[in-house]
Structures are given as C-alpha cells and as structure tokens.
Design a protein that fits this description.
mainly alpha, 22 helices, globular, disordered C terminus
Length: 462
C-alpha cells in the first residue's frame, strides 16, 4: 500500500503515513453516511465499532487497535467491578496509559517531521472512556447532588460491550473527534430523545450542513497551503529571524501561528461533516419560526470567534469546543467545592490536565500555563469594563481586551507549535516575554486597582 501511495504522496507534498491517514479520515464521511442505512440497533452498534476499528487499522496498523483496547477494557472493567469509584479509577488509569504512550512515542516530534501515529486518536478515545465511566458513576448519586450536565448525561444502566465498543470507535469519529457522551450516542442509535422520528416535525436533513462544512474545509486547506510557504515555523531557527527587530519578530509570530491554525480548521471541518451526515451532529431546533435544525454537536471551532475574539475568556468556547466542554464538565466543575466560587486554582488545574492530555512536551505545558494567565488577565480588563459607566472608557477597554487577546494568544501559541523548551523560551525572549509580562502585570493590577462589584447580569455573562 505504501508503494502505491508514494507517487500521490509526493505530488501532494506529504509523507505516505500522513496521506494514508488523510484518506481514511476523509472516508469517515461516506462511512458515517452508510450508518444511516444499517437496519436495527444491534447492527448499528456493530457497524460503528467495526468501521472504527477498520479505519484505525488502515490508518495506523494493527497495533493501534491494541492500544485502543487498553483504556477501553480498563474503563469497562472499572465500571463492572467497582462502580462507586469507577470514574476516578478510569480517569487515572486511562490518562496514565495515554501519558505512557506520549512518552514512548513522543508523537510531537513525528508530527513536526511529517509522520503520524495513533496517539492523537488515543487522546480522543481516552476522553470518551473517562466520560462514560464518570457518567455511570454519577448514576449512583442523588439527583439533588448533581449539576445540570451530570443530570443530563448520567447513566443508570451499564452499557453492553457492543454498545460500548460502538460508542468508543463510532465510524472512525475517534480519529480526531469530536468528543461526545454515551447518553447521546445511545439515544442517537436507538432513535430516542431529539432523534425520535416524527412525521409531523420539520425536516432534519443533514445534507446542506454537510456541504457547508465541506466548503469550509476546502477553503481552510487552500488558505493553509497558501500561507505556510510564506510563514513556515522553520523560519524561527533561521539567522534571518534573529536579524529582525522587535515588531517584525512579533508580526511573524502572529502570522506563523495564524497560518498553522487553518490546518486545524480544515481537520475539524471534515470531522464536523462526518458527524453531521450521520445525524449525530443534530442537537435540537432553533426558536425561530419556522424552527430550523441545529448541528452544533459536531462543531469543534468557531473560526471568526477565535480570530476576532473580544476576550480571552471566550476562547475555550470557540476553540476545540467539544474538548473544552469535556474539560469544563469533567474537570473544572468537579474541582469546585459546594457553596464555593471557582478561582485561579480550578482554571490552572484544568489547563494543566489539558496540557498533559496533549503530551508532555514543555511547549504544551508552557502554552496552557500561559493560557491560564491570559484568561485571568482578560478577566481583570473585563471587570474594569463592567465597573465603568463612561461610554468612551468602556469602548477603550473593549478594544484593549481585543488587542490583548490577539497579542497574548499568538505569542503563547508559539510554544504549542515548536514544543521544544529551549526554542520556546528563546522565541518568547526574542520579543522580551511581552505575552507573559502583560498578563501577570494585569493580574497584579487587578489586586491594586480592584473594580467595583459588577452587576449581576455582567457577572453571569462572565
């Protein structure tokens, strides 16, 4: 298969393993469409699991499915053997295995050099396995003890092995996501909840939204291929970068990270198209008249929301949306003690888990620590904005928050892109650590110049 793909890989400009993965990844769209034609619940579960395992095998080889089996079996065994603590047990066992694979394969180096392995898919699978176990654990708790998300996704009954495998590997959705919960998967497969068929209701045809996602993917890839030759990450290690002045270095950091993001936009647009065409992406109806179907369950990024973010606080809501939602439901909210308000500790702990989940490269860890500082600094500006009634000052603070987010996000993203500790610190130092100093200064100023208590509405929005 490698020999057959070599000419095509050379013409596209990628390695054979990456091309093989991309072909299997795009194949999730027709595979997901064919799911709709499979009759019966059991057959649908079997089809979901089998096609996911097949696409994994074709993408990464037989060993990938063996790696996937480890967290899957650990999670299911924990649910069977010790339900009262199966959530926390699965969390540490599955995440621990993922960390071990990160250390063994050091995938970040392979990805930078044009290679690929199953670690990325294992990352998605780990989140699905953990959430399933936690939701089954929540099924033992009293309803008054649960938050809204816990009530919505709790599992009262242990899923069968066939259901569990279908959920974990569903039609190859584990390759890059999005992440979703077992409760949604079961209701979708069984035609219950919002997926219950009704002849009286409006049409929920997925084809228009699928076409939109594919057009978006094509645009993102075209822009990525156009920009990358002008702003390659390799330029950071070239002598010409060191010769530039402060503003040129800062501009190039922004443009290189801006260019890289379009690769992620392309990948998430393809995964969105696959989940939408299967029907799983459906998440209800708008309140307009007539009502229109919403497909946000498959949405992993709001491109304009990221590039034009008015505040760092909104970034987790518009970037890698489903993973951010997972972190909020299964880490952030569960670290908040009853009757207490969340603080910097919950934010930092959540970002640390996110960093470890991505891999143990220093660049990842630095980026997510940076992002915690970035969000905390943005909150200070937001509180100042809400505390003033002067229209001109309020507009100036809104503009300040936008510029601050643009600057610190792209400065921080350099670490996420280059990964290496020495290179990350050298690049931060080349612009005088501006994206680290400003957030820390804002946090300290928040204590020195505290804003008056915000109105209840403003506090709710923040």
């Amino acid at each position: 298969m490698e020999l057959d793909l070599e000419p095509l890989a050379a013409s596209v400009g990628v390695s054979v393993p990456v091309l093989r993965f991309l072909l299997c990844f795009v194949a999730t769209i027709p595979v997901s469409f064919l799911w709709r034609l499979v009759p019966g619940r059991l057959a649908k579960h079997v089809y979901s699991g089998f096609t996911g395992a097949l696409l994994s095998y074709l993408s990464f080889g037989f060993s990938s499915n063996l790696h996937f089996l480890v967290p899957m079996l650990l999670g299911y065994a924990a649910m069977v053997l010790y339900r009262p603590k199966c959530g926390i047990i699965t969390f540490f066992l599955a995440l621990g295995y993922l960390i071990g694979c990160h250390v063994h394969y050091m995938s970040g180096d392979a990805w930078k050099d044009g290679g690929i392995d199953a670690t990325g898919a294992l990352m998605v699978l780990t989140l699905k396995v953990i959430s399933c176990a936690i939701n089954y654990n929540d099924g033992l708790l009293k309803e008054e003890e649960l938050r809204e998300a816990q009530k919505k996704y709790r599992l009262d009954k242990l899923p069968s092995l066939v259901e569990y495998c279908g959920y974990c590997l569903c039609c190859g959705s584990h390759l890059v996501g999005p992440v979703y919960d077992m409760k949604d998967y079961l209701e979708w497969t069984e035609g219950k909840g919002i997926w219950a068929h009704s002849d009286k209701g409006p049409s929920t045809s997925p084809y228009r939204e699928t076409f939109r996602a594919l057009l978006q993917a094509a645009f993102c890839m075209a822009l990525y291929l156009y920009l990358v030759p002008y702003y390659p990450l390799s330029r950071f290690s070239e002598p010409i970068y060191q010769e530039w002045g402060f503003w040129n270095k800062l501009r190039f950091q922004y443009m290189s990270c801006f260019s890289v993001r379009w690769k992620y936009y392309f990948i998430w647009s393809i995964s969105e198209a696959a989940v939408i065409i299967s029907g799983l992406g459906f998440c209800g109806w708008t309140e307009s008249s007539p009502p229109k179907p919403k497909w946000d369950r498959a949405k992993n990024v709001d491109i304009l929301g990221v590039e034009l973010a008015k505040s760092s606080v909104v970034l987790p809501l518009v970037w890698n949306i489903q993973v951010s939602t997972w972190l909020r439901h299964y880490v952030y909210e569960r670290l908040i003690k009853k009757g207490k308000k969340p603080g910097f500790f919950q934010l930092l702990a959540t970002q640390t888990i996110s960093a470890v989940w991505h891999g143990l490269y220093p660049g990842y860890i630095i980026f997510f620590v940076q992002s915690a500082l970035m969000i905390a600094g943005s909150r200070v500006i937001y509180r100042w904005e809400q505390a003033t009634d002067m229209a001109l000052v309020k507009k100036a603070l809104v503009l300040m928050n936008f510029a601050y987010t643009l600057l610190v996000l792209n400065y921080s993203a350099v670490g996420f892109s280059v990964l290496n500790l020495h290179e990350t610190l050298a690049l931060y130092g080349s612009v005088y650590y501006i994206g680290t100093i400003i957030p820390i200064a804002l946090i300290l100023l928040g204590y020195i110049l505290p804003a008056k208590p915000a109105r209840s509405k403003a506090r709710k929005q923040q």
